Write a sequence for this structure.
């Protein structure tokens, strides 16, 4: 069983502005467009691999581990 993890912290415009305002203008990896592209690429890859996707945004690692263990225990499929 393969698991994919997604975090979407940059979808909050205020958070994105605070983060990107601390970076040089030459940095493109933190732009909202770039983050959206990377999230879509990850989702596409997860679909192709048949991953169960866990959104880890604002989630403790223990909670994420519990979700994964429960999915394995119950053989939840995507």
């Amino acid at each position: 069983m393969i698991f994919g993890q997604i975090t979407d912290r940059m979808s909050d415009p205020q958070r994105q502005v605070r983060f990107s305002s601390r970076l040089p203008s030459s940095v493109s990896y933190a732009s909202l467009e770039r983050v959206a592209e990377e999230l879509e690429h990850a989702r596409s890859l997860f679909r192709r691999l048949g991953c169960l996707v866990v959104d880890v945004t604002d989630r403790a690692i223990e909670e994420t581990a519990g979700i994964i263990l429960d999915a394995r225990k119950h053989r939840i499929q995507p």
Observations:
- DSSP finds three helices and two strands in the chain.
- The beta strands are 3-6, 52-55.
